[in-house]
Design a protein that fits this description.
Blueprint: E1 2-6, H1 8-15, E2 23-27, H2 31-37, E3 42-43, E4 50-53, E5 56-60, E6 63-66, E7 74-77, H3 84-89, E8 99-101, E9 107-108, H4 113-118, E10 121-122, H5 134-145, E11 150-151, H6 153-161, H7 171-181, H8 188-196, H9 201-204, H10 213-219, H11 225-230, H12 238-248, H13 252-268, H14 276-287, H15 294-303, H16 309-316, H17 319-323, H18 336-354
Parallel strand pairs: 2-5, 10-11
Antiparallel strand pairs: 1-2, 1-8, 3-4, 4-5, 6-7, 8-9
Length: 358
C-alpha cells in the first residue's frame, strides 16, 4: 500500500501558499487492508472508496471511463491495480495533477504541472478533460483564483466543445462553483474565461457583453461570496435577476436581497431629495437588504458612484427614529387604517427631520 498527497495542497505548497485542506490517494491495496492500518477511518464515499482519517480525505486511486453524457456519466474502476499515474490522468488541469510521496517528500509529476506553475499556465491534463462539463466552470474558477495565470488556448478549445453538455450540470453544482469563485482574487476572470470559451449562454447569459462588468468587480473587490452575489442587483435588470435566480436555484434570501438592491439602484437613478414619501419608500426597501449592515449599505451606494453619500447617511440615521414611532392607542387595531396612519406619521417625521415640504 502506498499513500500520496495530491491535489490543491500539493499545488499550493509548490506555489508557496499555505494549504488548508489535505487530500490523499491510496494505491495498491484493498479496503480491508486499509482499515487494518487505519481502524478509526470513516467511509464517506458511495461510488468508490473514500475515507476520512483525522479530518483528511483518503480516496482510493481510480480510473474513469465515459459511458454517458454529463459529469456523472462515468464508469469507475477503483481496484487495487490502478496506478498513481492512472489516477492523476483523470484530473482536470496539470497543476492539480501532481502527487507527493509522503514518505520521501518527492513529487510525482507525469504531466509537467510544476513546469506549468513556473510558466503560470492553466493547461488540461489530457483530452479526457472534454469528458466532464463541470471542468469548464472549474477552469474558469481557477482563472479567477490565479489571475496571473493564462488559460492555454487548447484548453479553451476543449471547454468550448463541452458547451452542449453544460445543460447536464445540476443547478446546485453550478451555483456552488460560482460561490467558490466569488471568494477568489479576481472573480471577473471567471466570466471572461467563459466568454472566451463561448460558454456563458447556458447558465450566465445575463453577463454576456455586460457593460462595465469588470469595473463592477473592481469596485466591489473588498466583498466576497453572498455580498458580492447580491451586488449583481446593481448591474442586472429585474427580469435578469429573476431568470438568473431561477436557473441557479439560488437561496431565496439571496434573490430577495438582490431584488431589493435593484430597487434601490432604480431609486438612486431618479433620487428625489424633496419628496418625503419617496424617501420613506427608499428607507423601507433598504431595511429589507438583510445581508448588509448599515455601513455596508452606504458603502455599496458609494461604490455605485452615487454622488451625495452624505444625504444617504443622513436619511439612514432616521431609521431608529422612525422605528420607535407608535400610533396613538385610539388608532390601533384598525387594520389598514392603523398601518396607513403609522406610515403618515413616519412621512411627517421625515419632512420634519429633513426640513422638506413635499
Amino acid at each position: 500500500m502506498k499513500i500520496y498527497q495530491v491535489g490543491g495542497s500539493v499545488r499550493d505548497e509548490i506555489m508557496g501558499i499555505k494549504p488548508h485542506d489535505f487530500d490523499y490517494v491510496v494505491v495498491g491495496t484493498t479496503e480491508k487492508e486499509f482499515l487494518e492500518k487505519y481502524p478509526d477511518a470513516k467511509k464517506v464515499g458511495k461510488n468508490f472508496p473514500v475515507f476520512l482519517v483525522d479530518g483528511n480525505e483518503y480516496a482510493f486511486a481510480r480510473s474513469e471511463k465515459k459511458v454517458a453524457p454529463g459529469y456523472r456519466g462515468f464508469e469507475i474502476d477503483s481496484s487495487s491495480d490502478i496506478t498513481l499515474e492512472e489516477d492523476l490522468l483523470r484530473r482536470d488541469i496539470t497543476i492539480n495533477a501532481i502527487a507527493k510521496n509522503i514518505e520521501t517528500g518527492d513529487y510525482i509529476d507525469p504531466f509537467n504541472g510544476i513546469k506549468d506553475i513556473a510558466n503560470k499556465k492553466i493547461v488540461h491534463v489530457s483530452d479526457k478533460f472534454s469528458e466532464d462539463p463541470l471542468r469548464v466552470y472549474r477552469v474558469a474558477r481557477f482563472a479567477a483564483q490565479f489571475p496571473d495565470f493564462t488559460v492555454d488556448k487548447k484548453t479553451i478549445i476543449l471547454m468550448a466543445k463541452l458547451k452542449t453538455e453544460l445543460k447536464t450540470l445540476s443547478s446546485e453544482r453550478v451555483f456552488t462553483e460560482l460561490m467558490k469563485t466569488l471568494e477568489k482574487e479576481k472573480p471577473f476572470r471567471f466570466f471572461e474565461t467563459l466568454e472566451k470559451a463561448n460558454s456563458l449562454e447556458e447558465h450566465f447569459i445575463e453577463f454576456k457583453n455586460k457593460n462595465k462588468l469588470q469595473e463592477h468587480f473592481e469596485n466591489f473587490s473588498k466583498y466576497a461570496d453572498e455580498k458580492l452575489f447580491i451586488s449583481f442587483g446593481l448591474i442586472l435588470t429585474d427580469k435578469e435577476i429573476e431568470t438568473f435566480y431561477k436557473r441557479l436555484k439560488a437561496p431565496n434570501k439571496l434573490y430577495l436581497n438582490m431584488l431589493n438592491l435593484y430597487s434601490i439602484k432604480e431609486m438612486l437613478n431618479h433620487f428625489d431629495k424633496k419628496n418625503a414619501k419617496f424617501i420613506y419608500k427608499f428607507i423601507e426597501i433598504s431595511k429589507q437588504i438583510s445581508l448588509l449592515t448599515k455601513e455596508e449599505f452606504i458603502d455599496f451606494i458609494k461604490l455605485y458612484k452615487f454622488e451625495d453619500i452624505k444625504f444617504i447617511e443622513k436619511i439612514t440615521e432616521l431609521i431608529p427614529l422612525l422605528d420607535s414611532l407608535r400610533i396613538p392607542e385610539a388608532m390601533r387595531n384598525k387594520g389598514k387604517d392603523s398601518s396607513g396612519h403609522l406610515i403618515a406619521m413616519k412621512v411627517d417625521k421625515i419632512r420634519e427631520y429633513l426640513s422638506i415640504k413635499s
